[in-house]
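It would be a great kindness if you could assist me with a short task in structural biology. The matter concerns a single protein, recorded as an amino acid sequence and a row of backbone structure tokens. Kindly check, if you would, that the fold set down in the tokens agrees with what the sequence suggests. Thank you for your consideration; the sequence and its tokens are set out here:
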Amino acid sequence: MSGEDQQFEGKLKTGQTVKVAYFKQTDETLDRDIRMIDYLREENEIAKEKDGTSVSITQLLERFLFPSATHGKKVYKLSGGEQKRLYLLRLLVHQPNVLLLDEPTNDLDTETLTILEDYIHTFGGTVITVSHDRYFLNKVAQSYWFIHDGQMEKIIGTFEDYESYKKSLDKNKSTLKQQSKSSTTVRKKNGLSYKEKLEYEQLMKRIEQAEVRMEEIDVLMIEASADYGKIKELNEEKEQLEIQYDLDITRWSELEEIKEQQ
């Protein structure tokens, strides 16, 4: 999504108005001989608040804990934490509408994280973060994407909402697996009946259609990043698709096992 890694399969569709800023987990090399204020001015002279209010570079520096008396200080005189904070500020001065954060809590001090959390709450665009810091996620996240069993799922709510959903999903999978096992044990005949062959073909089509639609929904949710109502609507549609998809996959697996007995 950052545009840096081209070694992947699939397609990335980006809207024409999307402007991405990427906060890397690895350290970014800064020009050591440049002054702080000039480092930011290379990117922009002013920034805009969510409500359209203009904010000067000096105001932003002060907001990010750099007193006015230090704005002429050269980068090499800053501590490692201060350089990281300055780098983050430059990304924000870039005026992105999509902000990618890769493990931001690893290197930022507590004060900077507090400022970042406040900024995210007033940010007018979309923030996508990868983090193992549950406290940070609970402070800033409105929805979660989880990857497991080769699938991506999106949950709107808190981390606790996800845990509850995951428990119910695991329970349903366990029940379906047990039902499938019982069905296979009882089944004695070999091969599929005519009715089962039709069902098998219908399941294949439905599974393929669901996979295509879920990919479309993922793209639409990114494009509708500022429209919470639309995202909620798309997420609900995807959740229903995923429930039916799991049921179809389970039934397809049962029929596939019977089919292999021929």
